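Q: Could you predict the 3D structure of ABC transporter substrate-binding protein?
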Amino acid sequence: MQHRLSRKGILSVQFWALLLCLILHSGPALAQNSQSPADMAIATREAPPFAMKGPDGEWRGLAIDLWRDIAEDRGYSYHFVETDLSGMVEGVADGTYDASVGALTITSGREQQVDFTHPFYATGFGIALRKTPTAWYSLFQNFFTLNFLKAVLALCALLLFMGLLFWLAERRANEDEFDHSLRGIGSGFWFSAVTMTTVGYGDKAPRTVLGKVIALIWMFGAIIIISTFTGMIASSLTAGRLEGAVSGPDDLPNVAVGSIAGSASDEWLTEEGYGFSDFPDVESGLAALQDGSIDAFVYDDPLLRYMVRTSYNQDLRLLPGTFGRQDYGIALPQGSSLREPIDLALLRHVESNEWRNDIKSTLGKRE
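A: Sure. Here are the predicted structure tokens for ABC transporter substrate-binding protein:
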């Protein structure tokens, strides 16, 4: 009996030892299956400052460095493959690439083709414009605009009409100040002008009852009229001039706009009903804006901010704030087992002070 129990105990120990060996042996294999292929093909494209290719062919940038940290954390082996914007999505969807990294916006259309990680950067669309002249120079230019001329002519017409009324009322009883000739009409114009502006030189004054009644009505009416015309003139001088023709998205239909076809900004502009000229990349669009071929260029705010800050600071500017909503993420095949481990590594990095400092030092302060 004791011999049988000992043998049974030995068999039990052997069973558990065998099971432990199987677990230890299968664990790395299961972990490998939940990780990545031997050498991951990572699609990317030029999108400064998130993805930039140096003269030596080495990729760098905010998103590239983020992926390097994730790969190091998870033990992934990878190489970068350059493609275009559509290839970053379609290539992952058809299995050509294992992931896409860069300034890739998460949209509903792209989500139908691929899975995205947790967003690593939230932003919106920016509007780049040419810098306008200084305020005083711009103000001087606006004295010669059609709107300003119309306002001045309308004011002169009103003064002439009131001057004619004064002349008709005073020309017989007050010939010294409002004679029968054209000079009398000119005197009426002068009197209506000094009365409206409350200058009151006292060189001319109505003597008839009708002239005094007209003058009284004109004094009170001029208070309202002068305010109206002041507003018209100020509007013609300043409206949309000192800050340029575009002060927000609502002004885009009135100017020539540029963007990149197939991008998230394309979807946003199309949804809003704004037409635009297509450019192959941000640099060519900003160059067209600089030489006056277009009036505004719409694209991802951080990309525009970086390009304007580093290459076009003398000639271009960005409107303050952002428009619409964008979230950048890493594209993975649908149902990929890599999504959760990558998300964990990604979140650890983007929640760090190092990431926030990198964003601030690279993109500068957002207006």
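Q: Anything worth pointing out?
A: The longest strand covers residues 121-130.
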